[in-house]
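Researcher: We're teaching a course module on how sequence relates to structure. For the next exercise, students receive a sequence and then see the predicted structure as tokens, so they can try to spot secondary structure elements on their own. Here is the exercise chain.
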Amino acid sequence: MKVWIMHGMTESGDDVGPYAFASEPTVDEQIAILKRDLPCEFEDAEDLGPFGYISELTVEPVEVIA
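Model: And here is the predicted structure for the students to work with:
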């Protein structure tokens, strides 16, 4: 079984995630979760792009052995 893990870091060095998904998340799904859990990283960040102050973000598949 495969899951997708999303993790990263904010510009200030705070950890983001990890988040686990049953299927590969779309960019819109990623942004929605980040905005829900880390709204301060998106305040006054319109010029920075869709991920605001999230400086590093990785989504990678991981094989789970059950």
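Model: If you want an answer key for the exercise: The chain has a mean pLDDT of 91. The CA atoms of residues 35 and 42 lie 7 Å apart.
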